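Possible regression after last week's pipeline update?

I re-ran a chain I had predicted before the update to compare outputs. Posting the input and the new output here so someone can diff against the archived version. Not blocking, just want to make sure nothing changed silently.
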Amino acid sequence: MKQIKIKDVFSIALYQPDIPQNTGTIMRLASCFGLDLHIIEPCGFRSDDVSLKRSGMDYIEELQFKRHISWNAFLEWSKDHSKNLVLATTKTDHSYLEYSFDANDMLIMGRESQGVPDHVHHICQKRITIPMKKGLRSLNVAIASAIITSEALRQINILR
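New output (post-update):
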């Protein structure tokens, strides 16, 4: 994995990820679509975790990513780069299908175990959700990332 110069294109940020297999899967997703991935520390696992490497496979070598030592460092960076923070959350009724994605959007995915704290929730300019069957809580963070990313890339015309 190499840290890179960030592009002005849709990207994904993981807020304090705590399951290495999901993070590896999202790394693979970002690699396959040529997207930048941001990891907001602290993580709940070490970067040399075997599960992370297994789920990311050799795609991780193609990954372009940036680590941020804290939420505040990430927030400062995102403001300096004019990024629109779009939080995927179960605490909104605004469907990702109703959102008009922009190339400067950055999809924020919360921790698998707890989502994001209230102060992070309130800072994000936009909050979107994936509509689901009533009574169910949430999707796996890697699956939710793929669903939303696919729609964003379709709208921005990156998949064509």
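Follow-up from reviewer: compared with the archived run. DSSP finds five helices and seven strands in the chain. Marking as no regression found.
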